[in-house]
Amino acid sequence: MTTAIDGPRIEAASGNARKLVVLIHGYGADGNDLIELGAQWRNLVPEAAFVAPHAPGRIPGFPPGMMGGRQWFALDAYDPNLLRRDPHQTAAVYATMQKAAEQVAPALEQFITAELERHNLAPDDLALVGFSQGTMMALHVGLRRDPGPAGILGYSGALLGGEGLKQQIRSRPPILLIHGDADEIVPIEAMHAALNMLNQADCPARFHVSRGLGHGIDGQGLALGGAFLADCFARPK
Questions:
Q1: Does position 224 have pLDDT exceeding 70, yes or no?
Q2: Exposed, middle or buried, 191 (CB in 10 Å: 0-12/13-18/19+)?
Q3: Measured between alpha carbons, how far is 231 from 220 in angstroms, rounded to an integer?
Q4: For residue range 60-113, what is the model confidence (pLDDT) as tens digits?
Q5: CATH number of the domain encompassing residue 85
Q6: Is residue 2 part of a domain?
Q7: Does residue 4 sit within a domain?
Q8: Is residue 48 part of a domain?
Q9: Residues noted as catalytic
Q10: Cβ–Cβ < 8 Å for 205, 143
């Protein structure tokens, strides 16, 4: 049985949603953490509705009643210091998370499909935006949709199971990856590994490095992301 998920929404500024942006939050947060991006971008893409689903999993031990504390999958064995010491381990580390992502992906897929149907939109009227673990989920789900989304925007994230992507990829949408070079949680080596794997799967991606930025989104990254979404939705079908 697939776990049903839901989250906060922002309706299209135009009053008539003809596009949909799904904002996928990171580990330890929830949809309320990322829905603010919709408020920042809604005038750039006035025909887009925004929704930020809460991940189905709760982090064990997180204080009840507090906002956040959600996870798409557990990160018990994750060690960013290992990736800094030995960047060559990056691909292997993220490959181990693939099975967990595969288990939760149907819940996110079901949610996306239901939101598209709610707005009477086509599969390619969709854009996926992720932060950190949310970027992992956006890339995992988005590249396996057919038809694929209009675009995938990922902040401070990584590509899971990249070695098998060539066999599993079903669409090649425009992708923009944005990452801080001082990221202490997901080292920037993860972005470079993702770019390499995407290129090997004939799905080249654009990228931007935010100098001096840790695990977050700065003003420049926010502006670049909004422009990317506007460009994706402006492309002829």
A1: yes
A2: buried
A3: 16
A4: 877 666 678 899 998 876 777 766 667 676 666 777 788 889 999 999 999 999
A5: 3.40.50.1820
A6: no
A7: no
A8: yes
A9: 132, 183, 215
A10: no
| 1: in domain | no
Count of structural domains, the chain: 1
Region label for 100, one of left (φ > 0), alpha (ψ between -120 and 50) or beta (otherwise) = alpha
Length of the chain: 237
SS3 state at 129: strand
3-state secondary structure 23-91: EECCCCCCHHHHHHHHHHHCCCCCCEEEECCCCCEECCCCCCCCCCCEECCCCCCCCHHHHHHCHHHHH
Contact indicator for 203, 143 with CB cutoff of 8 Å: yes
- Within 8 A by CB and 6+ apart from 120, the residues are none
Q: What are phi and psi of 159, to 5 degrees?
A: -105, 125
**What is the CA angle 44-45-48, rounded to 5?**
150
CB-based contact 210:220 (threshold 8 Å): yes
In this prediction, residues 112-127 reach a mean pLDDT of: 97
Range of the domain at 184: 9-234
The rounded percent of the chain whose pLDDT value lies above 90 is 76
**CB 146, CB 177: distance < 8 Å:** no
pTM beyond 0.90: yes
At residue 162, the pLDDT reads: 75
Beta-sheet pairing, 70-71 with 57-58: antiparallel
**147 prior amide bond cis, ω within 30:** yes
What pLDDT score does 84 carry? 67
